[in-house]
Amino acid sequence: MNGRTTIADLLTAKQERRPIAAVSCYDYTTARLVAQAPVDMILVGDSAAQLLLGFDSTLPATMDFMVAITAAVHRAAPHIYLVADMPFLSYHLSLAQAIRNAGRFVTEAGAQMVKIEATAAYLDTVKAVSKAGIPVMAHIGILPQRIAAVGRFHAEATTADRAGDLIDLAQEMRTAGANALLIEGTATEVAQIITAQSEVPVISCGSGPGCDGQILVAPDILGLGAGHPPKFAKSYGDLGARFVEAFQRYADDVRSGRFPDADHSYHMKPGEFERLQEQLGKTRPS
Ligand code: KIV
């Protein structure tokens, strides 16, 4: 594809029933490889706090950190549709704070859309940010930023009453101006109903095959063995074991003196070593 993927391309994909392949990734090196696949969308998720920084939740991700890694991913994958995750407390204080922080992702990091973990309490936030001209992906279902409030997560919308609530919430998010939905950890049947009712693209994160697209985090796709992958994660390569093997071979080579060899070392220009020895001989008594 020439040029950069736009929101119109995502809408066309939905209308033409071409599934959208999305990956959550956090760094330049990985994003370069993701872009070569290619995928249709990259989310720079606040799961970076867990999978990049080693925290036990997404809560410690800060705006400055998220902006820096989003910009790095944009440099690596300038043509891929880029969504940035608004971290905990970056949109909770006021509508002005939400617009200002969402705008930072666009102006400083090249993002085309921001993702907001959206309970009904954040409908006004979704509205304000999208009215400011910044496309919003409303993240519903399991909301990782609510870990402190709920203690642990369960699959969402597994009863008719909870399903009805989520279907209503999705409708309210669309009415508030959400340009896309992300549904996490939700019963397949319910995600499918929401997708069928939505005029905007709906991305599933562990919510079954009935949505317009799918997203997984890069470390789970690669099988890096980071954290505890959720039930819905699927690994497409056992790269964690390959990484360990490469590091072991490197460490063995260092310890045995096989690395570095002449091919991996710099050398003085011809004749310069002899000149140096002469100079050293003149200045240093032997
Ligand atoms: O933070 C993240 O990577 C996400 C995806 C798992 C959807 O929100």
How does the SSE layout of this entry go?
Layout: H1 7-15, E1 20-24, H2 28-36, E2 41-44, H3 48-51, H4 63-76, E3 81-85, H5 95-109, E4 113-117, H6 123-131, E5 136-141, H7 147-150, H8 160-176, E6 180-184, H9 188-197, E7 202-205, E8 213-217, H10 218-222, H11 239-256, H12 272-283
Parallel strand pairs: 1-2, 1-8, 2-3, 3-4, 4-5, 5-6, 6-7, 7-8
Helix pairs in contact: 2-4, 4-5, 5-6, 8-9
The structure holds 3-methyl-2-oxobutanoic acid (KIV).
3-methyl-2-oxobutanoic acid is lined by residues 24, 43, 45-47, 85, 182, 184, 205, 215, 217.
Describe this structure in words.
The protein has 286 residues and is an alpha/beta fold. It has helices spanning 7-15, 28-36, 48-51, 63-76, 95-109, 123-131, 147-150, 160-176, 188-197, 218-222, 239-256, 272-283, and strands spanning 20-24, 41-44, 81-85, 113-117, 136-141, 180-184, 202-205, 213-217. The protein has two domains: 7-237, Alpha-Beta Barrel (TIM Barrel), CATH 3.20.20.60; 242-283, no CATH class. Helix content is 44%, strand content 14%. It is elongated, with a radius of gyration of 24 Å. The termini are far apart. The model has no long low-confidence stretch (mean pLDDT 96). The structure holds 3-methyl-2-oxobutanoic acid (KIV). 3-methyl-2-oxobutanoic acid binds at residues 24, 43, 45-47, 85, 182, 184, 205, 215, 217.
